[in-house]
Amino acid sequence: MSKALSAGMTKWEVTQRAVEMLQPWQGVFDAASLDSLLQRQVLPQLVLSLREGLQISPQQQDLEPFRCVMSWQHLLPPLHLSCLFAGEFFPKWLGVLAQWLASPSADFGEISEWYSGWKSMFQQTALEKDEAILGYFNLALEMMQSVLTYDADDNLDGNTQGGPLAQFQDVLRAVSSNNYLKQLESRKQEIRVKQTRQQHQQAVKNAKHTASLSISFKEVVEAFAELYNVEFTPKVGKLLEGKQLWQFGRCVCYMEHNVVFVQEGNVSS
């Protein structure tokens, strides 16, 4: 069934109607099969919709490509949705903002309204609290603030080089070279590194816990011996199958798995 649906989707355009046709299948396919289907047939078209279909134009903005892509938000895996906008929308959006802010005739009232309008497009969506998306909007605010507080006299004195957006050139250059696939690979690498770090931390924690249990049991035995005034000392150089032998009163014992074994002749009990 998934193969037949996949073949049929090659003829689809990523419209609201396509979303409505696919949504009922969410409960039919398992998550892995549906994700695979979306990545093969839908995501490439959504990438093109943002990359080629959406033009950022403050004067006359066509929002249809944006709305079309966002209509898939509840079907797409969150990671892919975030990478889609981070890699295909924000590079061109921030580029337009930078050009507008650099214009001598820039109207900051219009820029502020434009910024707020776009930010509202992400509210009440699956990306409303996405850290990467919020990061791009915060970067835009920093750029706007830098231009508003820029003092041209400081630049004439040589204290500020390259204008109010000079400090953002490196990050804007990095963002402009981004795309969906680069974002996806970068995020997956971050996830792998995070998982490796967490596994290492858990292994260290488990090792410390195991060590503390071993020490704690020995301390319990020592406390018991002290309470009843019983000798409890290691027999120097005496081992049994690699385990330290202890003199416990009149008995010889060793400890293993939080249990005290007493040696009676050649038998341990």
- The number of helices is 11
Low-confidence stretches: 156-160
* SS content category: alpha+beta
Total beta-strand segments:
5
The gyration radius over C-alpha positions equals 32 Å
Approximate helicity band: 55-70%
Mean pLDDT: 86
Shape: elongated
Proportion of strand residues: 5-15%
Order of helices and strands: HHHHHHHHHHHEEEEE
State the strand order across the main sheet.
1-2-3-4-5
End-to-end distance: 64 Å
Sheet having the most strands: 5 strands, antiparallel
Protein architecture, described:
The structure is a single chain. This protein has 11 helices and 5 strands, in the order αααααααααααβββββ. The protein has helices spanning 2-9, 16-22, 31-53, 64-70, 78-88, 90-102, 108-122, 131-148, 152-156, 169-176, 180-227; strands spanning 232-240, 243-248, 251-256, 259-264, 267-268. Strands 1-2-3-4-5 form a 5-stranded antiparallel β-sheet, with helices on one face. The chain starts with a helix and ends with a strand. Mean pLDDT is 86; it is low at 156-160. The chain is 61% helix and 11% strand. With 269 residues, it is an alpha+beta fold. The chain is elongated.
